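In the current project phase, the collection of sequences with tokenised folds has grown. One resulting record follows, to show the layout:
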Amino acid sequence: MSQNESFEFRELTKADIEEFDALQRYAFQITSNEMARTGWSDRAMKQSMKPIFDSSYVLGWFYEGHLASQVIVYPMKVNIHGKIYDMGGITGVATYPEYTGHGLIHKLLKNTLNHM
């Protein structure tokens, strides 16, 4: 599996929600039973993800058209000694195990730092 041949780097869109949801659930062990126990339905969980794509910078690596690795940057502001600065909160960092060792997260994080 050569990174140059089959991997595509791009920003995720709402069209990627299904694959985004699947990687989130896999990486963070989110089960439908656990969601139901805490009052969330699968539909409500997916619906809650849509604003992420409106307000955040979501990047991913795709292998043969399928999401392999992702990161989310939430725009924020921080007050340091009375001065407001823009900043980004990094979350949702995940890679399927079969794609580890290719430097995908390293490149995603480097890109997020350049973006910020």
In short: Strands lie at 7-11, 57-63, 66-80, 83-95.
